Amino acid sequence: MSRIVMMGPPGVGKGTQAALLAVASGVPAVSTGDLFREHVRSQTPLGLDVSALLAAGEYVPDEVTNAMVAERLAAPDARAGFILDGYPRTLPQLAELDRMLGDTAALDAVVLLHADVDEIVSRILLRAEQQGRADDTPEVVRRRIAVYRAETEPLADAYAEQGLLLRVDGVGTLDEVTARIHAALDEAAAA
Ligand code: AMP
User: Fold this and answer.
1) Is the pLDDT of residue 134 over 90?
2) Pocket probe mutation, ligand 1, options 54, 73, 120, max atoms within 8 Å of Cβ
3) Active-site residue flag, 3
4) Is the CB of 11 under 6 A from ligand 1?
5) For residues 31 and 143, what is the distance between their CA atoms, to the nearest angstrom?
6) 88 Cα nearest atom in ligand 1
7) Cβ(33) to ligand 1 under 6 A?
8) What is the CB neighbour count within 10 angstroms for residue 154?
9) Tag placement on the chain: N or C end, fewer CB within 10 Å?
10) CB within 8 Å of 128: residues ≥ 6 apart
């Protein structure tokens, strides 16, 4: 189980869990949000292009996102596997990921962390205080959740049809959620 996609609404804690799972699995966590934020911080041409989209809670265009991910997954450290955090987020991205991986390196599992919206909004507002992210204002959070529902939620059905989807309750302590993720992956590996 070393090629895993972590999905879930903004603020559900998928970044934290993806990072922990990456350490436990000995493969890199690849977070498109982190990669974009790094470009914005370093003021690269890509960063300058995408900063307004990130600040507004809108998705970066698929071609731009796909190219960035293709480059990252081609790096030697991703050869043995990866935990993808925040990608794919649209159906065209899902198709592109399938194409990138080809048949030999298909995904092992897709973990969908779920939580209700009120829970999520309060978590994100807490994170805003702690991390000061520009896209963590209540208005942008609502927009990010709406975009998630419209663009990303349909991917869960697509992955369920492929038999890859593991639904995991994202409400609980960090350790509880980590334990649920490991249990779901162990169960899927044994099946
Ligand atoms: P995240 O840290 O995963 O919540 O991502 C932060 C922001 O980066 C998102 O709100 C989008 O603006 C952008 N982003 C991250 N991943 C993607 C993606 N797969 N497709 C499009 N935009 C993305």
Assistant:
1) no
2) 54
3) no
4) no
5) 20
6) 19
7) yes
8) 13
9) C
10) 136, 137
Regarding the beta carbon of 152 and ligand 1, being less than 6 Å apart is answered no
Q: Is the pLDDT of residue 191 over 90?
A: no
Q: Could you tell me the domains of the chain? A: 3-179 (3.40.50.300)
pTM score, two decimals?
A: 0.92
**What pLDDT score was predicted for residue 103?**
62
Compute the radius of gyration of the chain from its Cα atoms: 16
For ligand 1, say whether the CB of 148 is within 6 Å of any of its atoms. no
How distant is the alpha carbon of residue 44 from its chain centre? 22
Q: How far is the CA of 89 from the centre of ligand 1 (A)?
A: 8
Residue 98 vs residues 120, 162, 185: alpha-carbon distances, Å: 30, 12, 20
Residue 89 annotated in active site: yes
First to last CA, the chain: 12
What is the CB neighbour count within 10 angstroms for residue 75? 11
Q: Pick the catalytic residue from 3, 37, 72, 89.
A: 89
Residues with Cβ within 8 Å of 76's Cβ and at least 6 positions away in sequence, in order, are: none
Q: How far apart are CA 29 and CA 88, in angstroms?
A: 14
